[in-house]
């Protein structure tokens, strides 16, 4: 395959080692999807081949080898079984590329070396030691931070993407220590990606500070007992063994019996003719030309056979890898004929991807009509296809394509697995296009979710905000083209030139965002979140929204009347307490009653001069024992339930189907939880009479049952796991009543004969702690004096000190990094940790404590939502998933399949994720309405 040159084994040897496994994943996620002429994905192969072609030229005459991982299990798993245990399987499109990458190495005549039981990093460490001992030097082609411990005289790293040398100065800038101390810093800080435990609450800066002060990990651990009392000191003591294990995991072995001795690694040059044929078979025309072979590789019309970033206005693959397109935003094309649209379709086939955006008559995807559609295939290259523009007398509209004929042309493209369809908020566009007649759209990417998976809570995920943030570009606004206020016109009346500039720019921006966000996804360690949860959920949720859920209109009317009657009775009592009638819904009049006429303490005026009467003000007054604020809160609660559910559901119900169709919001929370609107089903009270009445109005279709599947105490289970609270872990293992067990532990009361009141108090503490509850909040909830609530919390932390340790660690992590991580690696950004106002800081701290738990629960149920529909289909069961509310999934199930479906759903949900020490438990129920099932 290659012609060897004479070996070079003298002390002048410069050995070039390529971290093959590390580069494969970077190339896969950095380079847009592309396929070879046979339709096999090759974007990672292209990036790898491009790198090899450059390295051979740069290091002509020098020995070279590519080092690969031989498998996932190594000696480190014997030391710590959890090491890298939660790493996801390689993406489907990457798997066929591994063999092709080894082919590429062989075609270039470069040895490919791997060894079972050892990581590529260990082989790299060993080769580096051997060549230096022989008097030579070594360049390792990698940007892996774990390899920075190898940098020393004679050993240098080089980033293959940025073409940037990594020497002593760069390592110190990265870790704050010299390379020989990198392993000590890594052992302290741990690595969530590889499941290296480290010491909780110690980040990169803190770890470097300790190592620089004490000299080594062992010296730090020995000195810990004598340090000033602090959370960090206690963590160093409690997790000393974890730190020592972490050091064993991150320390690279440099004494491996390498399969190929150093002196057998020789400079090789590829056999030109063999390599040429292989490059042609891959369709890599730009590499052929760069290597001087000339000619063009064969390329099919419907695939992207060759993507040369340099030729498309982006940085080189080996360079920065961040798109740097200078293409202007527009002008764009208005497409009004089948011939013109067909040209764009063919261009999309050739590109291998296309950004798509729809223009509609409204924001509700179930009722809005499509007005037009825009496509983008490269930065600055986009078009708008109008369908229903009416124009005005001053600007009449000429020829337009009909929706059906345009979608008929687009349908094969949208269904073609070889062409990626890119959206911003894909779920909305999928619903619009499906209702217009376009049923199959696959595969797809969503820039909104690409961003959300790596930056939840850091900023908004709307296209305009993302454009300003990543592209430094402010798109044309809707107001710019339609006007505002009374002068606003419908989008159907916008002149086509303005509509094109606005709509096609949206597709252009979406494409440019995709090129950037796809690159940052692996850098932010969010690939698994996006690929395994967020992206698959798009179609799952779209199907749930389409299914909707049936409601009982008569029950809703009865409920509305009952609420109205009870509110009228409450109003009479409120007037009696106030001493006169007033408008209860008026904050101004209520403030005057409470603070001017009744003289209640604690009133504060707003900027407008009126008294503040929000729920927090009223709750504080209620805790102090004042009756009127309590009555107002009860009235407001009932009024909200009446307007939000009893009345709103009747308005939202589709008369023909008697179903309501909520819209799930995928990116509005910091923690990854879904929210919903029109109707909002997340805020129905769970354990109140009114909440049960509302759930009774959600009913199964004839011949069906509703199936509720609810994770039991999932956030408490996560707390027990991440904080390692032994009594809680023991209680969950033995199926004990967790709240009774907590009451027994905290209040020193035997489990036998536990009274309901004590258990209720323990339950309030258990759930309150998750949300960082204060003594004031617990006192209000239990209706006890604040001092008594404070004693309860202190007793709780005395019995479970690990929970306080966890809470402090999360607050420290949020202060240091700006975010906290869920157990599954989701970043939950927590703004406000450095706020000047104590109230803002306190709120941020509660977020930092709760986000890993609430976010972890959200991750688990999202995994389940992806897996359950597949399992139902494989089992031939016809249940439909209708709703997701907090930790509960609701299904509509044919009567005859009810029991089998309940058993399958329970099994799949309980196995959707694995917690090391705690089992997930799902409770199921069946009924004719939601209340019965719940």
TrEMBL record:
<dbReference type="Pfam" id="PF01367">
    <property type="entry name" value="5_3_exonuc"/>
</dbReference>
<keyword id="KW-0548">Nucleotidyltransferase</keyword>
<dbReference type="InterPro" id="IPR008918">
    <property type="entry name" value="HhH2"/>
</dbReference>
<dbReference type="InterPro" id="IPR036397">
    <property type="entry name" value="RNaseH_sf"/>
</dbReference>
<keyword id="KW-0378">Hydrolase</keyword>
<dbReference type="InterPro" id="IPR001098">
    <property type="entry name" value="DNA-dir_DNA_pol_A_palm_dom"/>
</dbReference>
<keyword id="KW-0238">DNA-binding</keyword>
<dbReference type="Pfam" id="PF00476">
    <property type="entry name" value="DNA_pol_A"/>
</dbReference>
<comment type="similarity">
    <text>Belongs to the DNA polymerase type-A family.</text>
</comment>
<dbReference type="Pfam" id="PF01612">
    <property type="entry name" value="DNA_pol_A_exo1"/>
</dbReference>
<keyword id="KW-0234">DNA repair</keyword>
<dbReference type="Pfam" id="PF02739">
    <property type="entry name" value="5_3_exonuc_N"/>
</dbReference>
<feature type="domain" description="5'-3' exonuclease">
    <location>
        <begin position="10"/>
        <end position="268"/>
    </location>
</feature>
<keyword id="KW-0808">Transferase</keyword>
<dbReference type="InterPro" id="IPR020045">
    <property type="entry name" value="DNA_polI_H3TH"/>
</dbReference>
<dbReference type="InterPro" id="IPR036279">
    <property type="entry name" value="5-3_exonuclease_C_sf"/>
</dbReference>
<dbReference type="InterPro" id="IPR020046">
    <property type="entry name" value="5-3_exonucl_a-hlix_arch_N"/>
</dbReference>
<keyword id="KW-0227">DNA damage</keyword>
<feature type="region of interest" description="Disordered">
    <location>
        <begin position="295"/>
        <end position="330"/>
    </location>
</feature>
<keyword id="KW-0235">DNA replication</keyword>
<feature type="domain" description="3'-5' exonuclease">
    <location>
        <begin position="332"/>
        <end position="522"/>
    </location>
</feature>
<dbReference type="InterPro" id="IPR043502">
    <property type="entry name" value="DNA/RNA_pol_sf"/>
</dbReference>
<dbReference type="InterPro" id="IPR002298">
    <property type="entry name" value="DNA_polymerase_A"/>
</dbReference>
<dbReference type="InterPro" id="IPR002421">
    <property type="entry name" value="5-3_exonuclease"/>
</dbReference>
<dbReference type="InterPro" id="IPR002562">
    <property type="entry name" value="3'-5'_exonuclease_dom"/>
</dbReference>
<keyword id="KW-0269">Exonuclease</keyword>
<protein>
    <recommendedName>
        <fullName>DNA polymerase I</fullName>
        <ecNumber>2.7.7.7</ecNumber>
    </recommendedName>
</protein>
<dbReference type="InterPro" id="IPR029060">
    <property type="entry name" value="PIN-like_dom_sf"/>
</dbReference>
<comment type="function">
    <text>In addition to polymerase activity, this DNA polymerase exhibits 3'-5' and 5'-3' exonuclease activity.</text>
</comment>
<keyword id="KW-0239">DNA-directed DNA polymerase</keyword>
<feature type="domain" description="DNA-directed DNA polymerase family A palm">
    <location>
        <begin position="691"/>
        <end position="897"/>
    </location>
</feature>
<comment type="subunit">
    <text>Single-chain monomer with multiple functions.</text>
</comment>
<dbReference type="InterPro" id="IPR018320">
    <property type="entry name" value="DNA_polymerase_1"/>
</dbReference>
<dbReference type="InterPro" id="IPR019760">
    <property type="entry name" value="DNA-dir_DNA_pol_A_CS"/>
</dbReference>
<keyword id="KW-0540">Nuclease</keyword>
<dbReference type="InterPro" id="IPR012337">
    <property type="entry name" value="RNaseH-like_sf"/>
</dbReference>
<dbReference type="GO" id="GO:0003887">
    <property type="term" value="F:DNA-directed DNA polymerase activity"/>
</dbReference>
């Amino acid at each position: 395959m290659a012609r060897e040159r004479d070996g070079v084994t003298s002390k002048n040897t410069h050995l070039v080692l390529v971290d093959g496994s590390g580069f494969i994943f970077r190339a896969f996620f950095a380079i847009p999807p592309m396929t070879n002429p046979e339709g096999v994905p090759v974007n990672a192969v292209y990036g790898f081949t491009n790198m090899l072609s450059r390295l051979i030229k740069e290091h002509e005459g020098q020995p070279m080898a590519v080092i690969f991982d031989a498998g996932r299990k190594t000696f480190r798993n014997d030391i710590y079984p959890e090491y890298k245990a939660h790493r996801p399987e390689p993406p489907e499109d990457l798997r066929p590329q591994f063999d092709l990458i080894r082919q590429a190495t062989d075609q270039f005549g470069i040895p490919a070396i791997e060894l079972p039981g050892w990581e590529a990093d260990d082989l790299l460490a060993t080769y580096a030691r051997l060549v230096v001992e022989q008097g030579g030097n070594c360049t390792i082609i990698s940007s892996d931070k774990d390899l920075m411990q190898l940098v020393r005289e004679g050993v240098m790293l080089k980033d293959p993407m940025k073409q940037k040398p990594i020497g002593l100065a760069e390592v110190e800038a990265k870790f704050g220590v010299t390379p020989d101390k990198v392993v000590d810093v890594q052992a302290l800080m741990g690595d969530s990606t590889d499941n290296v435990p480290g010491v909780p609450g110690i980040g990169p800066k803190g770890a470097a500070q300790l190592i620089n002060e004490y000299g080594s990990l062992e010296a730090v651990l020995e000195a810990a007992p004598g340090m000033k009392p602090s959370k960090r000191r206690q963590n160093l003591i409690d997790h000393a063994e974890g730190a020592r294990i972490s050091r064993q995991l991150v320390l690279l072995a440099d004494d491996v019996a390498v399969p190929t001795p150093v002196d057998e690694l020789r400079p090789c040059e590829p056999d030109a003719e063999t390599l040429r044929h292989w490059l042609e078979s891959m369709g890599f025309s730009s590499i052929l030309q760069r290597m001087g072979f000339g000619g063009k590789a064969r390329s099919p019309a419907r695939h992207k056979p060759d993507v040369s970033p340099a030729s498309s206005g982006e940085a080189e693959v080996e360079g920065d890898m961040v798109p740097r397109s200078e293409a202007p935003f527009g002008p764009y094309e208005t497409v009004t004929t089948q011939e013109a649209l067909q040209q764009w379709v063919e261009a999309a086939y050739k590109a291998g991807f296309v950004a798509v955006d729809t223009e509609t008559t409204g924001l509700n995807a179930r009722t809005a009509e499509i007005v037009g559609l825009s496509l983008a295939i490269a930065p600055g290259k986009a078009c708008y296809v109008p369908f229903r523009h009416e124009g005005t007398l001053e600007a009449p509209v000429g020829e337009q394509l009909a929706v059906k004929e345009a979608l008929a042309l687009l349908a094969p493209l949208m269904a073609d697995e070889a062409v990626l369809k890119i959206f911003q908020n894909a779920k909305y566009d999928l619903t619009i296009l499906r209702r217009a007649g376009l049923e199959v759209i696959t595969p797809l990417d969503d820039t909104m979710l690409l961003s959300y998976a790596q930056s939840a809570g850091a900023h908004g995920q709307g296209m305009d905000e993302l454009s300003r943030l990543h592209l430094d570009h402010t798109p044309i606004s809707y107001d710019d083209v339609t006007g505002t206020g009374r002068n606003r016109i419908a989008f159907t009346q916008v002149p086509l030139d303005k509509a094109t500039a606005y709509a096609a720019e949206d597709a252009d921006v979406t494409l440019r965002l995709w090129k950037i966000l796809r690159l940052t996804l692996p850098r932010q360690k969010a690939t698994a979140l996006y690929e395994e949860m967020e992206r698959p959920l798009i179609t799952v949720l779209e199907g749930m929204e389409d299914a909707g859920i049936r409601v009982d209109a008569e029950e809703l009317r009865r409920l509305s009347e009952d609420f109205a009657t009870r509110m009228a009775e409450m109003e009479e009592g409120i007037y009696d307490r106030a001493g006169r009638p007033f408008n209860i819904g008026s904050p101004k009049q209520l403030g005057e009653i409470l603070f001017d006429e009744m003289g209640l303490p604690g009133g504060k005026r707003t900027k407008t001069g009126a008294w503040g009467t929000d729920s927090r003000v009223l709750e504080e007054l209620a805790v102090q024992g004042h009756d009127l604020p309590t009555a107002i809160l009860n009235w407001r609660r009932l009024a909200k339930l009446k307007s939000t559910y009893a009345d709103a559901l009747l308005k939202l119900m589709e008369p023909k189907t008697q179903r309501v169709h909520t819209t799930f919001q995928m990116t509005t929370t910091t923690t990854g939880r879904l929210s919903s609107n029109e109707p909002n089903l997340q805020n129905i009270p769970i354990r109140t009479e009114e909440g049960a009445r509302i759930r009774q109005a959600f009913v199964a279709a004839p011949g069906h049952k509703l199936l509720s599947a609810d994770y039991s105490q999932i956030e408490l289970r996560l707390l027990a796991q991440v904080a390692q609270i032994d009594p809680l872990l023991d209680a969950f293992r033995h199926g004990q009543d967790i709240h009774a067990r907590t009451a027994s532990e905290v209040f020193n009361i035997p489990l036998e004969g536990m009274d309901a009141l004590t258990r209720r108090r323990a339950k309030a503490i258990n759930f309150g702690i998750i949300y960082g509850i204060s003594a004031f909040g617990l006192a209000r909830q239990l209706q006890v004096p604040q001092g008594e609530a404070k004693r309860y919390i202190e007793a709780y932390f005395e019995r479970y000190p690990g929970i306080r340790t966890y809470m402090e660690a999360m607050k420290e992590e949020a202060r240091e990094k700006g975010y906290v991580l869920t157990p599954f690696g989701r970043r939950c950004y927590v703004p406000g940790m450095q706020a000047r106002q104590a109230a803002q800081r306190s709120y941020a701290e509660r977020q930092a404590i709760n986000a890993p738990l609430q976010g972890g629960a959200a991750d688990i149920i999202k995994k389940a939502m992806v897996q359950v529909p597949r399992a139902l289909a494989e089992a031939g069961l016809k249940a439909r998933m209708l709703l997701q509310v907090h930790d509960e999934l609701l299904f509509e199930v044919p009567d005859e399949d009810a029991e089998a479906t309940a058993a399958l759903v329970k099994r799949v949900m309980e196995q959707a994720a694995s917690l090391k020490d705690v089992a997930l438990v799902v409770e199921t129920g069946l009924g004719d309405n939601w209340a019965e099932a719940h």
